[in-house]
């Protein structure tokens, strides 16, 4: 249930309004602080304030900023708010450039204002999240919720909500129409929270239970309809949690097509603000890495040219986002450049590897040219490592869900690589474990996971384990 499955709306939540007012205050206070920093008032502070507020509201509407703040964890709230502010400022600059209006700010003043507001948005999210969790932890304004169906997914749902104090939900118990010996075993902490449906219906009518989740198997259609009919005589909010969520979904979220609700089963986690944030991280860090590595790359290129005949770079066909073919750049480390129907993986003491190539492969320096793939938008700094096209065609027939790793851009490094699954995959089990890591990365992606993987990559980049 770690995926984004339901947007829990607890009554008429004031949380979006609180966040909206806090953001408004950040924009205005940010302008005041920016003027204090520069030491003089801006030419048209009222115009700047109105333009910033309008741009942020429009940006927030496009990104669903306040719809997504309910039930979102702290990291998501920070990324969404800062991403929305970045989009808003970019739009403001674009409109101002097109119509020739500077909104009363020069470039330096604009950067200072945008930076100050970013800091205030970050601080407000931290403060409000801490405050809401602190108030709700002892039960302040908590709403009672119950789960119909003592099933595996129902138990997992109870655990997840219990670990999310910021939702403001107080667990009232499990309810089922079957005897206890026919239901799933309750975990520790829930032994005294099991009742029958009659009890639940009565509590819902009295308003003691505000939110109800039905976790019966989807095949139990008659039982589900019966519960819904009885609950219609109450004001409780009712959700059905489909039991197919017990399966290994890649990335699940609700959506709708012209009013028809649908749920994604195999989907990318990168949409809206998240995709923009990831791309900005790629460009920012990628450009800095390229500037830092520029001189070493030129020296490596010269060394390759002097020590063995052949080209400096090797471009190999691999699958990118959505399985589209891309050409991945690498420094040539072998005496051959295999890119046909059959590609033999490098092995320990492989005679095809040049002496210099062995050093480059052990230190992963042969991957540096892939920074160009990142800047061109074909790859990301972090993601599933791309395999040769021939290997893709081989393993897609042997491993279930293999091609799902292409729901995000391939990366220079990835979760599999920092967990030890780099280098030769001479057995099917090794490739399966690599693919499992790739799926885990897609399911659990967030910008902090990317940064963590990058830091771990830098710490192990000179390790010789599995690299040859």
Write the layout of secondary structure elements.
Elements: H1 15-38, H2 45-63, H3 74-99, H4 107-136, E1 143-148, H5 152-162, E2 169-176, E3 194-196, H6 197-206, E4 211-214, H7 221-231, E5 237-240, E6 254-257, E7 260-263, H8 273-307, E8 313-319, E9 325-331, H9 355-362, H10 370-375, E10 380-382, H11 389-395, E11 411-413, H12 415-418, H13 428-444, H14 447-460
Parallel strand pairs: 1-2, 1-4, 2-3, 4-5, 10-11
Antiparallel strand pairs: 6-7, 8-9
Helix pairs in contact: 1-2, 1-4, 2-3, 3-4, 3-8
Summarize the structure.
With 468 residues, this protein is of the alpha/beta class.
Give a written overview of the molecule.
- With 468 residues, the protein is of the alpha/beta class.
- The protein has 3 domains: 15-136, no CATH class; 143-247, Rossmann fold (3-Layer(aba) Sandwich); 273-460, no CATH class.
- Helix content is 47%, strand content 11%.
- The chain has helices at residues 15-38, 45-63, 74-99, 107-136, 152-162, 197-206, 221-231, 273-307, 355-362, 370-375, 389-395, 415-418, 428-444, 447-460; strands at residues 143-148, 169-176, 194-196, 211-214, 237-240, 254-257, 260-263, 313-319, 325-331, 380-382, 411-413.
- The strands form 4 sheets. It has a 5-stranded parallel sheet with strand order 3-2-1-4-5, sandwiched between helices. The chain has a two-stranded antiparallel ribbon with strand order 6-7.
- Helix 5 (152-162) links the parallel strand 1 and strand 2.
- The longest helix is centred in the middle third of the chain and has 35 residues, at 273-307.
- It is flat and about 85 Å long.
- The two termini are 39 Å apart.
């Amino acid at each position: 249930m770690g995926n984004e499955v339901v947007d829990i709306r607890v009554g008429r939540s004031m949380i979006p309004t609180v966040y909206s007012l806090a953001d408004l205050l950040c924009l205005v206070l940010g302008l005041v602080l920016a003027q204090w920093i520069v030491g003089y008032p801006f030419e048209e502070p009222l115009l700047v304030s109105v333009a910033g507020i309008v741009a942020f509201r429009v940006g927030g509407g496009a990104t669903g900023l306040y719809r997504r703040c309910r039930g979102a964890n702290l990291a998501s709230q920070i990324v969404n708010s800062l991403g929305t502010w970045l989009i808003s400022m970019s739009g403001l600059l674009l409109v101002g450039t097109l119509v020739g209006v500077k909104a009363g700010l020069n470039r330096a003043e604009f950067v200072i204002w945008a930076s100050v507001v970013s800091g205030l948005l970050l601080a407000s999210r931290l403060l409000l999240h801490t405050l809401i969790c602190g108030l709700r932890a002892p039960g302040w304004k908590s709403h009672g919720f119950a789960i119909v169906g003592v099933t595996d997914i129902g138990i997992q749902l109870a655990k997840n909500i219990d670990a999310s104090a910021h939702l403001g939900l107080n667990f009232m118990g499990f309810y089922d129409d079957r005897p206890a010996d026919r239901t799933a075993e309750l975990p520790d902490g829930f032994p005294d929270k099991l009742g029958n449906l009659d009890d639940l219906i009565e509590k819902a009518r009295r308003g003691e239970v505000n939110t109800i989740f039905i976790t019966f198997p989807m095949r139990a259609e008659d039982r589900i309809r019966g519960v819904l009919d009885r609950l219609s005589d109450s004001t409780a909010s009712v959700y059905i949690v489909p039991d197919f969520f017990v399966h290994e979904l890649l990335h699940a979220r609700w959506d709708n097509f012209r009013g028809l609700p649908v749920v994604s089963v195999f989907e990318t986690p990168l949409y809206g603000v998240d995709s923009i944030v990831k791309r900005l991280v790629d460009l920012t860090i990628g450009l800095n890495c390229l500037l830092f590595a520029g001189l070493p790359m030129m020296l490596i290129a010269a060394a390759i040219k002097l020590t063995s005949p052949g080209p400096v770079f090797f471009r190999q066909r691999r699958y990118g986002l959505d399985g589209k073919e891309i050409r991945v750049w690498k420094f040539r480390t072998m005496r051959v450049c295999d890119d046909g129907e059959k590609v033999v993986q490098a092995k320990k003491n492989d005679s095809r590897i040049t002496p210099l190539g062995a050093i480059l492969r052990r230190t992963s320096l042969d991957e540096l040219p892939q920074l160009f793939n990142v800047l061109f938008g074909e790859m990301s700094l972090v993601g599933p490592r791309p395999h040769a096209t021939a290997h893709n065609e081989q393993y897609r027939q042997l491993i279930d869900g293999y091609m799902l790793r292409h729901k995000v851009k391939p990366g220079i490094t990835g979760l599999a690589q920092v967990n030890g699954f780099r280098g030769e995959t001479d057995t099917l089990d090794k490739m399966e474990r690599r693919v499992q890591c790739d799926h885990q990365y897609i399911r659990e992606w967030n910008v902090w996971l990317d940064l963590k993987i990058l830091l771990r990559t830098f710490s192990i980049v000179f390790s010789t384990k599995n690299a040859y």
